[in-house]
Design brief:
mainly alpha, 12 helices
Length: 317
């Protein structure tokens, strides 16, 4: 048993030595991220949202589908923190459940759209020629329509529902990643290290995966982080106009739509789901801005230079 523990510790130490440069790079990236108050604010909001989505259904004080007409449209109180709706359902519980639905929609949408867009962008940018023309012209067709309008058309054609929203948004989102990835590949593929890899006979697949993809990931990560909020907002908009979640699903956009006839007299019905959407989208946007700065080599090198200068001053003193 002791031997296995020693070998595990040795493996961890060997891994740290082998990946020392990468570990230092990530530490520097984290320092840049945490130096920005707005980025930290966004990170806190996103963590709260993720925590709510994961544990919300377990800590919700009431069943979000429970109907009790005797408690209909009650204002916020200790019993019902966010008040109740016209059926007496607890809005706080429904907002907690809605966080998981919004997170699921965002993750599945981007899990389909991002890989599809990145793969097509890598192929188009690396090979060029007729392949590039075909992929980019198809992409241009999708980009010719405003995203929300296209999502509305697709949702209307396929019928309302959460699954329909995820499919529609996936079809809307992938073209942006094609264009972004292709542009990054065009700027990277002519570098000397790519030419050297070709010269020694490395195959195209390995060049794309090993040498090009790691060098184009930064802007993709930034865009995907910001798009988490964008997907949640668009899904809420579709539900608001009746093309997304169906009643009584406690999706945030659906809650705002259901509360619209009762606003402003029963303001809490619309206010709390609306603020949940607002803060979640704001959090992802702030975090995305912070990640963009943290992944910028110039900013990281500047911070590294300042830290070295401080260390030298301390040594001199």
């Amino acid at each position: 048993m002791k031997t296995s523990k020693i070998s595990l510790v040795q493996k961890i130490q060997d891994w740290k030595v082998k990946n020392k440069a990468k570990i230092e790079e990530w530490k520097l990236t984290l320092k840049v991220l945490l130096r920005s108050p707005l980025a930290v604010t966004g990170l806190v909001i996103v963590l709260i949202f993720l925590f709510t989505a994961l544990v919300g259904p377990y800590i919700a004080p009431y069943d979000p589908y429970r109907i009790k007409f005797s408690e209909a449209l009650q204002p916020p109180s200790l019993k019902h923190l966010f008040g109740t709706d016209e059926y007496g359902r607890d809005i706080f519980s429904r907002v907690l459940y809605g966080a998981r639905i919004s997170l699921t929609v965002a993750i599945i949408t981007l899990a389909i759209g991002v890989p599809l867009g990145v793969v097509l962008g890598l192929i188009a940018g690396y090979y060029g020629g007729i392949i590039d023309e075909i992929i980019m012209r198809i992409t241009d067709i999708f980009l010719a329509f405003p995203g929300l309008i296209l999502a509305m058309a697709l949702s209307a054609a396929m019928g309302s529902g959460i699954m329909t929203v995820m499919i529609a948004l996936s079809l809307v989102w992938w073209p942006y990643y094609v264009r972004l990835t292709r542009g990054q590949v065009l700027s990277v593929k002519e570098n000397l290290f790519i030419e050297a890899a070709r010269a020694i006979g490395v195959n195209d697949f390995w060049i794309i995966v090993k040498h090009i993809l790691p060098n184009v990931l930064s802007p993709i990560i930034v865009l995907a982080t910001m798009d988490m909020g964008g997907v949640i907002l668009t899904a809420a908009a579709l539900s608001f106009i009746g093309l997304g979640a169906k009643p009584p699903t406690p999706e945030w956009g659906r809650l705002v739509a259901d509360g619209q006839p009762y606003f402003p007299e029963y303001w809490w019905y619309v206010f709390f789901p609306g603020m949940a959407i607002f803060f979640t989208v704001l959090g992802f946007n702030l975090l995305g801005d912070g990640i963009r700065d943290a992944l910028d080599p110039k900013i990281r090198r500047s911070l590294e230079f300042k830290e070295k200068k401080k260390k030298e001053e301390v040594v001199r003193e």
